[in-house]
Amino acid sequence: MAGRLEMFRARKEAYGQYDYPHLAHHTRKLIEAGIYDKQLLEPFTDDQLEELNAYVRSDRDMNFHYAGSMQMTTKYLIKNRVTGRIYDAPQHAAMLIGMAVLPTRYQGDDLIQQVKDFYDVVSTFEGSLPTPIWGGVRTPLRQFSSCVVVEAGDSLAEINAACDVASLYGAARAGLGGNLGMIRAEGSEVRGGLAYHTGVVPFAKKFEASVKACSQGGIRGASATMFWPIWHLEFENLVVLKNNKGLELNRVRRMDHCFQINGYLWQRLQNGEQITLFSPHEVPGLYDAFFADTAQWIKLYENAEKSTTIRKKTMSAVEVFTQLLLERTETSRLYLMNVDHCNTHSSFLPEIAPIRQSNLCVEITLPTKPLLTVDDPNGEVSLCTLAGVNMGKITSLAQLRRVVRVLVNFLDALLDYQDYVVPAARNATKKYRPLGIGITNFANWLAKNNARYSDGSGNNITHAFMEAFQYYLIEASVDLARRFGVAPGFHATKYSRGLMPIDHYKKAVDELHDEPPAHGLGNPSSQRPALWYA
């Protein structure tokens, strides 16, 4: 009841009445007011607009519970973020999102059917959309990617460019992953010793200030996770950045932090050995090899340990990991990234497009390259554009396949519809066309299938669902490639060599379920997006 009352309140505020007005009439009103994108209705004839208006199901608003209705009215509906005035309601929003994006790819009757299919998936909660899409599509600001990953190099220009990108995308509703791990340690020579380097912490604080100076369109504050190699010479300064002790001068508490590790360093911990810390720039090739070639990294690392001319610090591996886990326990916001594992199991070939960081939530693997300025087209700022399948609504594999196809088609079209804050983001996105399709409501799905998290009863059915989920995502991508062409960066993916996740996943997973994996698609020779599920 409370949810329904909130929906009626939103309608009354947006429309001045409890019923939905004509879709096209209200949309034109908001276009004239500068609230909606002026091109929103241009691809449609009057007859098509009448057909889509008749397809709006206002009764679906009654399916919102109170929490969902409040999420809609506070975050997702278009509103004046200063006065709080709401301008639309959920059913119009769901229809207009599809109407805005899908004309970039489809026309005529195919377009109308695609819009209807998308509307049904979203308005019946079969699929979910992230905040940038709900709160942004249909407005003039066309930036809808949820995740942005940007890497700073070691030069002042590269660091400043990364900070500028963080500020611009933070203001454009994106969560950020910032890799500052290449920056040299405090006390390093600058310009051959003419200057003394201030170290990583001041630049981490600069990145923090760039992120926190902006809000995400008034919807929420901008946020970021910073990434550091655990073997950085300033490890002891970095590991306490989120700690409540110490001065504001040497803390970066409003960011989250992730430390990057590989199996070789874990092995040193298990053996009770030492870990040696270096400034990345003082061991040529060490930082790049850390991600692209573990064998080469081990060789460079061990040679640097033996060198008598390279600045270093040696610590007990137990001490390093104890500090790391202590800070993780105390702050709950310090993460770990196994970089060799990420590169082994990501969609990309590490020798061509190594994974050097992740995003705010530490869940995606996309390649990056530092840029010299925000206009530098040679850098790579990767974006991940998201949607989700609501497992609680899925009752058959046929339904799952339909929902997956709708979401993949929509997101792939969105990549061409949206604008890009910097050329490096546009180029990387058009090169790889990465999509992040996930799941929601897993606990509800388990309960409906009389299974639990805790006792292993859900392992086999979850495995079967996820195998089908992945299959349908790859199938949808292959179909897109047949219709619209292969992503230009497809050669940088494992898929281009006939390798699917089933060929390089961690085999220990097989111990958690009974059913052996099997190839379904064979080895597809071409797909469109470079990433299908997250």
TrEMBL record:
<dbReference type="InterPro" id="IPR008926">
    <property type="entry name" value="RNR_R1-su_N"/>
</dbReference>
<keyword id="KW-0560">Oxidoreductase</keyword>
<keyword id="KW-0215">Deoxyribonucleotide synthesis</keyword>
<comment type="function">
    <text>Provides the precursors necessary for DNA synthesis. Catalyzes the biosynthesis of deoxyribonucleotides from the corresponding ribonucleotides.</text>
</comment>
<feature type="region of interest" description="Disordered">
    <location>
        <begin position="513"/>
        <end position="534"/>
    </location>
</feature>
<dbReference type="GO" id="GO:0004748">
    <property type="term" value="F:ribonucleoside-diphosphate reductase activity, thioredoxin disulfide as acceptor"/>
</dbReference>
<dbReference type="InterPro" id="IPR000788">
    <property type="entry name" value="RNR_lg_C"/>
</dbReference>
<protein>
    <recommendedName>
        <fullName>Ribonucleoside-diphosphate reductase</fullName>
        <ecNumber>1.17.4.1</ecNumber>
    </recommendedName>
</protein>
<dbReference type="InterPro" id="IPR013509">
    <property type="entry name" value="RNR_lsu_N"/>
</dbReference>
<dbReference type="InterPro" id="IPR039718">
    <property type="entry name" value="Rrm1"/>
</dbReference>
<dbReference type="Pfam" id="PF00317">
    <property type="entry name" value="Ribonuc_red_lgN"/>
</dbReference>
<feature type="domain" description="Ribonucleotide reductase large subunit N-terminal">
    <location>
        <begin position="63"/>
        <end position="141"/>
    </location>
</feature>
<dbReference type="GO" id="GO:0005971">
    <property type="term" value="C:ribonucleoside-diphosphate reductase complex"/>
</dbReference>
<feature type="domain" description="Ribonucleotide reductase large subunit C-terminal">
    <location>
        <begin position="145"/>
        <end position="521"/>
    </location>
</feature>
<dbReference type="InterPro" id="IPR013346">
    <property type="entry name" value="NrdE_NrdA_C"/>
</dbReference>
<dbReference type="GO" id="GO:0009263">
    <property type="term" value="P:deoxyribonucleotide biosynthetic process"/>
</dbReference>
<comment type="similarity">
    <text>Belongs to the ribonucleoside diphosphate reductase large chain family.</text>
</comment>
<dbReference type="GO" id="GO:0005524">
    <property type="term" value="F:ATP binding"/>
</dbReference>
<dbReference type="Pfam" id="PF02867">
    <property type="entry name" value="Ribonuc_red_lgC"/>
</dbReference>
